[in-house]
Amino acid sequence: MVVAEDIKVPSWDLYELSIPCTVFGKPQPDLADPWYELRLCGAGEAPPDGSPAGTGLSLRTRHGLDDLVGADTVIVPSVPDPCVDEGRPLPPALITALRRAYDAGARMVSLCTGAFALAEAGLLDGRRATAHWMHTAQLAARYPKVRVDDSVLYVDDGDVLTSAGLTAGLDLCLHLVRRDLGAHIANQLARRMVVPAHRPGGQAQFIDLSVPDTDDGGLGPVLDWARAHLDRPLTVEDLARRAAMSTRTLHRRLRAATGTTPLQWLLNQRLARAQSLLESTDLPIERIGELSGLGTANNLRHHFLRQVGVSPGEYRRAFPRTAPGPSPSADGNRPRGVQGRRRTGRGEPGAR
After folding, report:
1. pTM of the model
2. Which one in 138, 158, 196, 251 has a CA-CA gap of 20 to 30 Å to 324?
């Protein structure tokens, strides 16, 4: 059972809605017979003929929230943006229906922001869960009982499963097929869908590692200076001396301005530089380690695997450059206009 929270589905939400429909809705009798029986469930009354649908499409279903009870699996692909960004309440009837379905023994699944519905229903309390990395901070702040992990593609917690956004929903749906029908069938289905059965790493390799610019005018120049000299063996003392303040004051002000410590800030900037060079140049790993300030190739691989979840080589293959990229300047500055991404996750079982 796939639940569409809003009868008027915005066009940008159709992707998450279409994923379970594609995976579970099309019969595959040569792979497994019987296949899944997919039903779309709307959380409200369908609009009358001729009514405006706004920027989305009007979803008409034969099934309502009462039909969730008795479903083997309930999937919430997403919730409306205002429920995430503005804190608009989700319909109480939907939350009640999700709780009833879970109490009746249904396996509960969310894709992307659908995790907010499961969390509101209390189904993620005390559990590890994920959502799209752009919304995990909001999920953690709004539902402190949920152990939010922004590094993985999905989390399998037995009878409750959550995925990151967009294509990570496809990873989770294929995982469900793998759990239910075996790896061979899941692999054959993935082949038909022209997607990998497994993706290396998790969603953290897609997260922007760069720390937001600070409004602290006293820190801006020293941080710009540090970014321009990442190939040097910088220390917190170097930054504090450059900013003409004590290391304790630097730590306090940088933490307040960026939400991170000086050491973590430096590491994030070095990783972002390495990611940029991997994406935009053909430089060997050893040289990238030097230019990013991460040192040897082994040290670069260590931090990449720990923070990004994949090796530098795997990252370079995932983000190949399509045109000749700018060469790094003589002082090792990162090419302009190329943004970094962040670290990532782990493999099965239980999380990808």
Report:
1. 0.60
2. 196
List phi, psi (to 5°) of 2: -105, 125
Residues 6+ apart with CB under 8 A from 56: 6, 8, 9, 10, 11, 13
pLDDT tens for each residue of 19-66: 888 899 889 999 999 999 988 887 655 444 444 444 445 667 778 888
- pLDDT band for position 124 (cuts 50, 70, 90): very high
2-199 is classed CATH 3.90.180.10: no
- Note the CATH architecture for domain 220-318: Orthogonal Bundle (1.10)
What is the residue extent of each domain of the chain? 2-199, 220-318
Nearest to 228 by CA among 308, 340, 328: 328
Instruction: In the chain, count H helices and then E strands.
Output: 14, 10
194 has a pLDDT exceeding 70: yes
3-state secondary structure of 8: strand
Highest mean pLDDT among 98-112, 151-165, 183-197: 98-112
In sequence order, the β-bridge partners of residue 148 are 129
